[in-house]
Amino acid sequence: MTSTTNALHAHPRTALPLALVRGIGQIMLQSNGWTGLLFLLGLLVGNWQVAVGTLIGAAVGTLTAYTLRFDAQGITNGLYGFSPALVGAAAVFFFGLNLPAVVLGVIGAAVAAWLQRTLAQRKVAAYTLPFVVVAWVVHVVGVYGLGLAGAADVQPLVDLPVGAWAALFNGIGQVIFQGAPVAGVLFVIGLAVAGAVSAAAGVLGALIGILLAILTGQAQADIALGLFGYNSALAAITLAGQPARTAWAAVCWVVVAAVVAFILQLLFSQFTGMDMLGGVLTLPFVVAVWMVAGLRRVVNA
């Protein structure tokens, strides 16, 4: 057994909570406990109900991985917490904080953790794909199977003056269903704690998505809510964390990934039945990173 395995199973009361908050940080690809705590703080301030759903999902995913003896390194780094956390957040975002939504979130989180590991074993860079697939099922079951109503709006505990800059931070906040700028600000701080490059890439990606939305004449209300920023932000953060030959090459790949994610979001949103599934979620980010990874292999060959 490795030292990580020994530590995880010898001291689960300390190792598992750390894995849980790292799992929340891994929503934006950061295996950092402080980042996860700042994300959670942003959720509590922006929409406390989604914060509860996120925490439940991350806990279920982490405990599922621990109980089923997934690899200790992956558990410790939060790799089995982020998709379940997003599933828990989505269930509450879709239907509110109530018993049926929590049950759907718990079951979905466990399935997402299993799917994350299954894809990893097959060497698939899944990113948030398990979340997307499971959240779609949760939405369909909730709406068409259980007849659940949509969630009521929850006012942020702390709000900031709304201006042109608000869309930028909303674009980052929407990664975890947040439409309050204060949540996005705390998310950026969380990214900066893990690394300035990740924070800068996230802001740049969200900015690119928003500017492209303006240039292509998308709905102003959707732009203000940050709905065109989050996929580009995630794609930019991912590419910023990958090695490149030069700093300028790294910036170029970040920009390309953000642009591709925006284009894919527009394309996927046109698919018939997407609203029935609950929206595109982070699928454009996942496919964009796959496409750019393939393009990089061709360019660097």
UniProtKB/TrEMBL annotation:
<feature type="transmembrane region" description="Helical">
    <location>
        <begin position="37"/>
        <end position="66"/>
    </location>
</feature>
<dbReference type="GO" id="GO:0005886">
    <property type="term" value="C:plasma membrane"/>
</dbReference>
<dbReference type="InterPro" id="IPR004937">
    <property type="entry name" value="Urea_transporter"/>
</dbReference>
<feature type="transmembrane region" description="Helical">
    <location>
        <begin position="274"/>
        <end position="295"/>
    </location>
</feature>
<feature type="transmembrane region" description="Helical">
    <location>
        <begin position="223"/>
        <end position="240"/>
    </location>
</feature>
<dbReference type="Pfam" id="PF03253">
    <property type="entry name" value="UT"/>
</dbReference>
<dbReference type="GO" id="GO:0015204">
    <property type="term" value="F:urea transmembrane transporter activity"/>
</dbReference>
<feature type="transmembrane region" description="Helical">
    <location>
        <begin position="86"/>
        <end position="115"/>
    </location>
</feature>
<keyword id="KW-0812">Transmembrane</keyword>
<protein>
    <recommendedName>
        <fullName>Urea transporter</fullName>
    </recommendedName>
</protein>
<feature type="transmembrane region" description="Helical">
    <location>
        <begin position="247"/>
        <end position="268"/>
    </location>
</feature>
<keyword id="KW-0472">Membrane</keyword>
<feature type="transmembrane region" description="Helical">
    <location>
        <begin position="127"/>
        <end position="152"/>
    </location>
</feature>
<keyword id="KW-1003">Cell membrane</keyword>
<feature type="transmembrane region" description="Helical">
    <location>
        <begin position="196"/>
        <end position="217"/>
    </location>
</feature>
<dbReference type="InterPro" id="IPR029020">
    <property type="entry name" value="Ammonium/urea_transptr"/>
</dbReference>
<feature type="transmembrane region" description="Helical">
    <location>
        <begin position="164"/>
        <end position="189"/>
    </location>
</feature>
<keyword id="KW-1133">Transmembrane helix</keyword>
<comment type="similarity">
    <text>Belongs to the urea transporter family.</text>
</comment>
